Amino acid sequence: MSPIDAHADGEGAADPSLRDRPIDLIDIARALGESSNIERLDGAAIRAWRDELTLIRESLSYALTILAADVAILSQSRSEGTTTGRDVVDELPGRLTSSPGEEQWSAEDLVDLEDLEVAFDEGLFARTDQLLRAHREMARVDLSSAGATANALALVEEQLAILTERHAAVDARLQQIRAVIIRRYRQAAAPARDRPA
Q1: 3-state class (DSSP) for residue 36
Q2: Phi and psi at residue 8, in whole multiples of 5°?
């Protein structure tokens, strides 16, 4: 059965595909393990693994972006030693929207963005829910407490390191799959006299 289709368990019930449920580290390990024998897979199976791993990579990329922003917020809060939680909360929008040397978006830019009809996958948020546990912890931390901020930062950095490693592994597997697909395409397109016997 294709990895994109429902996964059947021992009792015949079907779990939803990764597109319809949260992805966790076990799912990522399973996808990497089961797709490791790409040379033996037929065309449909290899394309199905490519699609599933692409979905995982998109989810990991989103999670890494969120966690990197959390690290920046926690690091800045910790280094500044802010005295009250209210001060930190009041300063966060400015921290997130301005960077030294960068121009701010104008009203015209925002209108232009609204005119674009970009397909947005709303399932992305549900798929990354399990990957962002550290983000949920960070959201509850008292940023005025140096100890709580340091603990939250350590947790987020640990999760960021794990997901960065998984992202690199998924990206490498996708490159392998791409190479196999291209090689097979070239072999199929080669004249009969050039094909190996």
Answers
A1: coil
A2: -85, 140
> Can you give the C-alpha Rg of the chain in angstroms?
22
The full set of domain ranges for the chain reads 21-91+125-194
Nearest 5°: the CA angle 157, 162, 166 is 145
What is the secondary structure of 52-65 as a DSSP string?
HHHHHHHHHHHHHH
The pTM assigned to this predicted structure is 0.70
Interatomic CA distance for residues 29 and 51, integer angstroms: 16
Please tell me the total number of residues recorded for the chain in this structure: 197
Task: Using the Cα atoms of residue 98, residue 102, residue 105 and residue 109 in order, give the sign of their dihedral.
Answer: negative
Predicted confidence band at 90 (pLDDT cuts at 50, 70, 90)?
Answer: low
The pLDDT tens digits of the residues spanning 25-65 come to 999 999 999 988 888 878 888 888 999 999 999 999 999 99
**E strand or H helix that includes residue 28:** helix 25-34
Quote the CA–CA distance of 189 and 197 in Å, as a whole number: 15
Comparing C-alpha atoms, which of 173, 191, 158 is closest to residue 46?
173
Query: What is the C-alpha separation between 191 and 188, in angstroms, rounded?
Result: 8
Angle between helix 85-97 and helix 43-80 axes, rounded to 10 deg: 130
